[in-house]
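Tokens for chain A. Residues wanted.
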């Protein structure tokens, strides 16, 4: 178990403790494996090095491993009894007292062809990559609770898939990916320098972002090797966002956020893509 000395306050998510404990109680009572994913999970990883969250969020995302839609409905019913309200999207709940939105993203036996069908209107929640990435999750302690968190390279893949499904609704995904790239070398400095020394230039100025992006790609390749469909989707997204800098929605988002040159942002994506093609030895 990887232990964290951080507390709920460090995550800078209003009412995170209250909401997390309600979710934890319901899912553990039903013996349902679950994982903290998304921006909250990334924030938890970065806190290991004292890197504080750069943005607050009232959204908390969980991936839950279940076998059927009936089982999912039972979980939702339990959460309604605990004070949550359902909204239009069947995987989303809101706690009105705490004003926190929770997404419960089911995967496992419930899915068919990487999608979960809820009803006639919501027929295809895409969960491509979940099974592959969640297998490598690690346990973290947050005060007196334990939560499973998938590895950061895997979370980047999940964010790329989610963003490509609904880019108009998931504007924060590119930002979260960039934040990982910015700080990943701080997070895993010793291991990165030992295992990926071949990427350290002998004469050129060392670029931490390029270094991190390439390593993240190398480490993420292990998940692509487990799923040809995931591999195809990720390379499609990256190709669409590197072939023409002016048409790259991800690069334009990064350039706007950081004030960086657009071509540099595309080069970061290309470094990640290069790492995916190489993998780790």
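Reply:
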């Amino acid at each position: 178990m990887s232990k964290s000395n951080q507390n709920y306050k460090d995550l800078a998510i209003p009412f995170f403790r209250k909401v997390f404990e309600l979710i934890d109680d319901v899912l553990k009572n039903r013996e349902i494996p679950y994982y903290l994913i998304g921006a909250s999970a990334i924030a938890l990883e970065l806190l290991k090095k004292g890197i504080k969250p750069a943005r607050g969020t009232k959204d908390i995302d969980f991936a839950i491993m279940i076998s059927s839609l009936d089982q999912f409905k039972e979980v939702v019913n339990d959460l309604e009894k605990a004070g949550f309200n359902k909204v239009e999207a069947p995987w989303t709940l809101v706690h009105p007292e705490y004003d926190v939105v929770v997404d419960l993203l089911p995967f496992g036996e419930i899915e068919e062809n990487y999608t979960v069908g809820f009803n006639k209107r919501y027929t295809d929640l895409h969960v491509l990559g979940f099974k592959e990435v969640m297998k490598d999750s690690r346990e973290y302690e947050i005060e007196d609770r334990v939560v499973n968190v998938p590895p950061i390279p895997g979370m980047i893949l999940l964010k790329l898939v989610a963003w490509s499904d609904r880019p108009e609704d998931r504007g924060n995904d590119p930002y979260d990916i960039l934040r990982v790239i910015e700080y990943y070398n701080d997070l895993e400095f010793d291991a990165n320098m030992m295992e990926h020394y071949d990427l350290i230039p002998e004469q050129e100025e060392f670029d931490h972002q390029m270094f991190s992006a390439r390593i993240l790609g190398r480490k993420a390749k292990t998940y692509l090797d487990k799923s040809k469909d995931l591999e195809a989707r990720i390379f499609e997204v990256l190709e669409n966002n590197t072939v023409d800098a002016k048409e790259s929605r991800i690069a334009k988002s990064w350039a706007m956020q950081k004030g960086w040159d657009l071509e540099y942002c595309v080069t970061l994506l290309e470094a990640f893509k290069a790492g995916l093609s190489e993998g780790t030895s």
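The chain is about 50% helix and 15% strand. Residues 1-5 have pLDDT under 50 and may be disordered.
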